[in-house]
């Protein structure tokens, strides 16, 4: 186990009806906020009215910034920064999924910064200050509600880049599983893949003696795997929605990475896909992760055997552990397929004509590698895209 | 899953050499602190010198209050409160195990309170303010380093009572597994029993649909069960000490109770034992918990079957699940015995002559019940003491 520092202070307010508490929660921080959300879905479901009423009741003024979209855009972030500055706003409430939250986080670090907010995502500067923010989550997926991560897409070149700093962890996250009842099945499944990917990125590590976090990862994966088919059959199953929603937070609040170094190459490889093709991140991960596994499993067959046996209940083949490892990868791929996700690029009509361009972007034209479990160069990434064809 | 609020903001600073960071950490809060610890062990091991040097280097003044002992006493708490008030101290650093930390928490709520600090433990008042505190942990057991709990013994009548409020969660916990290398085997085992009890108190619940937290509980229990014999054989095994230490925090920071109502009767029943006989809390739990299980398991056999199969890898008896449930309880008892703990009161020379007195105290002379999984009255508690004879 490596030395680590862990602090995940987000106040989780979980359960039925909790969105009604938002006004009381927000007013502890500010009386004038930016209300940031996506499109019309929160208006259709009635959530928007509940939030607005709760804010008004608590005497909280708000200026709205709708328009957050999947793979959230830098241009909207810049607009949010401008609104906050011009109106002396010092708190941001994001209502939605990872897109609204990641976008809110970018606004939060952008407002007190004199330079261009993209500096933080391009790795040219590290933010030292951030406005506090709160979240009402409507989608179990990115774990952004309690994470230190934000991923933004720069339309100028379609670069999708992440920022990871503790100061952007939300102050509170209101999580009512009922708010996820109306999600279309495909989005639910993409969320499931994203949650599982967050765990698997941490699970595949070269750090030894990480038994507790291994087991916590396995516990969280098994819970998601068990409950995903239930919510697809029965979208208003509160219990199963709740398990997935809470698992989504645990998957990415860094508890599961304490004392270990995760991999994260599948995320890097996927980000290039969704930046160019604007596909759902979770769908991209369902395609990339099994291909990545097939490419790297020989680096540590035992770890893939453990994954197969403990997560997928594969019967251990003691005479041929490699077969067990491969069966685990197959089960993952079969699972993604069973919940309606693509597992090959061809299934979403992506051909091989931009593999080199994406590998170039992921590695800064071959100047750097991605991944920690196995460090992958430009050629490796092209090979993985080919395995995912 | 029940609605819940979860916030566990303690900054965990984990790993080799981390005690050297204490001065830098403390000075973010205060330049004049109470340094609270137990007896001579931190002086023998050299930890005391390291802490003092680090504080001095950071320019932090300190007044010392040694003397925290197992089942920490109210009189020392009162002394600490007096010292803090007389010297304008606004931060407490506890160095030690649960006793020093629980005692520091009591001082922390006592200083800003005009009445008697025991009011909080007797349930006569709820603290609204607390001094901030930090911890250097030297014993994996109580989980107090990140919990909202403090247990104090009032020598006037030997009442042992707990306080549970979020404001006493430490600001930071420095956790170096090496600091636990010198623990005697018996104390190590008592710590293991305490950690397991914290998880099991949460595990045995009537709340349905708590799959994720069930699995996280099982993961943490399995880790502790696996690593306990390793550290008993090889006390300086860093990896195994680290697993147990981190598990001890997770066991009691409330992550494992999110969305569910735990039982906590074994703790209440044990507290009467250790208050009167001054035995180690962990040893008392090793005696009480199996007896409690034997007394209540029929209330929900399936839950005990799950415990047996998932935690103890008992082969499921599909024709007779009750046998599986009982085998799980037996495995727990065998495990405690295997790590050198008593599992019967007679083994620590406690006879049955004060069972009624203890049951009276636990239930306020039969006026109330203890436990949530099964609500136990005075007679039930006497029956459990008898099962533990």
UniProtKB/TrEMBL annotation, chains A, B:
Coiled-coil region list: none
Alcohol dehydrogenase iron-type/glycerol dehydrogenase GldA domain: residues covered: 9-177
Pfam families linked to this entry: ADH_Fe_C, Fe-ADH
GO molecular function: alcohol dehydrogenase (NADP+) activity; butanol dehydrogenase (NAD+) activity; metal ion binding; methylglyoxal reductase (NADPH) (acetol producing) activity
Domain Fe-containing alcohol dehydrogenase-like C-terminal: 193-386
InterPro entries: ADH_Fe/GldA (IPR001670), ADH_Fe_C (IPR056798), ADH_Fe_CS (IPR018211), BDH-like (IPR044731)
Keywords: Oxidoreductase
UniProt xrefs under SUPFAM superfamilies: Dehydroquinate synthase-like
GO cellular component, one term: cytosol
PANTHER family cross-referenced by the UniProt entry: ALCOHOL DEHYDROGENASE YQHD (PTHR43633)
This protein's name: Uncharacterized protein
Organism of this sequence: Caldanaerobius fijiensis DSM 17918
Organism phylogeny: Bacteria, Bacillati, Bacillota, Clostridia, Thermoanaerobacterales
